[in-house]
Amino acid sequence: MTAATPLLPPADWRDFLALTKPRVMTLVVFTGLCGMLAAPPVNGHTIHPIIAFTAILCIALGAGAAGALNQWYEADLDAKMRRTQKRPLPDGRMDRQAALHFGVGLAAFSVILMFVAVNVAAAAILTVSILFYVLIYTVWLKRRTPQNIVIGGAAGAFPPLIGWAAATGDVALLPLLLFGLVFLWTPPHFWALALFVKTDYANAGVPMLPVVAGERVTRTHIGLYTIPMAIAAVAPWPLGLTGPIYGGIATATTILFGVLALIVATRTTGADDTMKPEKRLFSYSILYLFVVFGALVVDRWVFA
C-alpha cells in the first residue's frame, strides 16, 4: 500500500490575493486607468463612472487571473528561486488545483463582465492580453528563449489599449504609442532586475539574457532598447497628440531614464559588486511609468 498524499489546509484569502501579484497589478491598473482617462469623449459624452469602474475592475481581475495562472504553471520554477520561494504554491500553502480553478474562473469572469457591461472591443483586447501572458509568455517563451521578455512584454502593454477601448469602443494612434512605450520599456526594466538576480534564474534554469548571453550583452541590450522606448515616450508630443505638460515631463523623465540606462550599459562589475546602479534603474523604471502616464492624464485634462 502507498501512503495517501496529505491534504493541504484550506488556503487563506491572503494566499489567493498573493496569486494575483498585487504589486504588478497596481501598475497594470494604473496604465489602464490612464488610457481610459486620456480617451476623448464619444459624441460629446465621457464614459459613465459606473462603466468606468467596471472596466478598471475587469482589468484588475484579468491581470490577477493571468498572475494566478502564471504561478500555477511556474510553481516548480518559483520553488527554485529565492525571491519566489515564499509564494503560496512553492511554500505549500495552497493546492495547485485550487490555483488553476481560481485563475481560470477569474479570467472568465473578467472577460464576460467586460463584454456585458462595457463593450466588445475592450473585452476582446482583455482576452488577448490574458491569453498572451499565459500561453505565449508563460507556457511558450519563458523556459525556451532569452527573448521571453522582449516578446512577452506585449502582455503588460495591453492595459492602455483596454482602457481607451473601454471609453471609446475603438483604438487610436495615441494608445498604440502607449502600448509601444510599455512594450519597449519592459526589456530594460526586467533585464535590470535579471542582472542582480541572475543566480536565481540560473538555479531555476530560466534562460534569461544574463544567464544565456552574459552580463555584457545584457547591458548592451538595455542601452539599445532604451532608445526606441524614449522615442515612443516622447512621440505623442511632436505628433500633436498631447500638449506641453506631457511633452516636458515625458522628455525630462526619459532623459533621466536614459542616463541611468547608460550607466548600467557601460559599467563593468566585479564578483563583490552590489549592483546599485542596476537596482536604481529597476526601481526608477517603475516610478517612470507612473509619472509619464500620470502626466498624460493631467495634460489631456488641461488641454482638452
From TrEMBL:
Keywords in alphabetical order: Cell membrane, Heme biosynthesis, Membrane, Transferase, Transmembrane, Transmembrane helix
Its biological purpose: Converts heme B (protoheme IX) to heme O by substitution of the vinyl group on carbon 2 of heme B porphyrin ring with a hydroxyethyl farnesyl side group.
This enzyme's EC code(s): 2.5.1.141
Protein's name according to its UniProt entry: Protoheme IX farnesyltransferase
Primary subcellular site in the record, as a coarse category: membrane
PROSITE patterns to which the protein is assigned, alphabetical: UBIA
Record's subcellular location: Cell membrane
Pfam families: UbiA
Organism: Sphingomonas insulae
Note: Carbon 2 of the heme B porphyrin ring is defined according to the Fischer nomenclature.
Family (UniProt): Belongs to the UbiA prenyltransferase family. Protoheme IX farnesyltransferase subfamily.
Pathway: Porphyrin-containing compound metabolism; heme O biosynthesis; heme O from protoheme: step 1/1
Membrane topology, as annotated: Multi-pass membrane protein
Membrane spanning residue stretches: 24-44, 50-73, 98-116, 122-141, 148-167, 173-197, 218-239, 245-265, 286-303
Reactions accelerated catalytically: heme b + (2E,6E)-farnesyl diphosphate + H2O = Fe(II)-heme o + diphosphate
HAMAP family noted in UniProt: CyoE_CtaB (MF_00154)
